[in-house]
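#help-structures

NK: newbie question. if I give both the sequence and a SMILES, will the prediction place the ligand too? trying with fe (ii) ion
OV: yes, paste both and it writes out the complex. here, I ran yours:
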Amino acid sequence: MCEMEMLDHIVLHSIQVCRVATFITERLNSQQPQLNRELIRAAALLHDITKTRSFKTQENHALTGGQFLAEQGYPEIGELVRQHVRLDEYPSPVDLGEAEIINYADKRVLHDRVVSLEERLNYILEKYGKLPEHQERIRWLWQKTIAMEDKIFSTLTIVPEELNRVLNSGDRTTNFAEYQKACKLI
Ligand SMILES: [Fe+2]
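OV: that's the protein plus ligand as structure tokens.
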């Protein structure tokens, strides 16, 4: 992240996505251990690894982020990063794996704040939904994301809004300070 000169607000966003993804993973794993927590944490932190660069190059940051990580020797993380905007498949019923958790967590974080899917959708529609065909694609994706949310929370004892309350307070600024300190050492 330091070497790629990731912009501060993207670092903060990534830290928050990581907190959401970790929280959900730990809750799900406490019922049935099935998700690779460390893989999820790495992919969440790195999901926007080429985004800063993409502002200049206009590259597809999900795709190039996945490629970049594979080239660095982390193909498994790359696979998750590649699918963080849109999953390769949306089977029905929903099949929850690491890719789904990363994809969902990213859709619950607006900048560095945990929000509802609805709030994030409105932001995305405003920013990327200028053309009707784009709008349609975004809404399709959102229906699939809502199905994912239903599946995630169907077995948990908390509701989706609980994440806002729990994760909007807490230590992400500490994490960010630690990150800055670590960058200076490189
Ligand atoms: Fe992204």
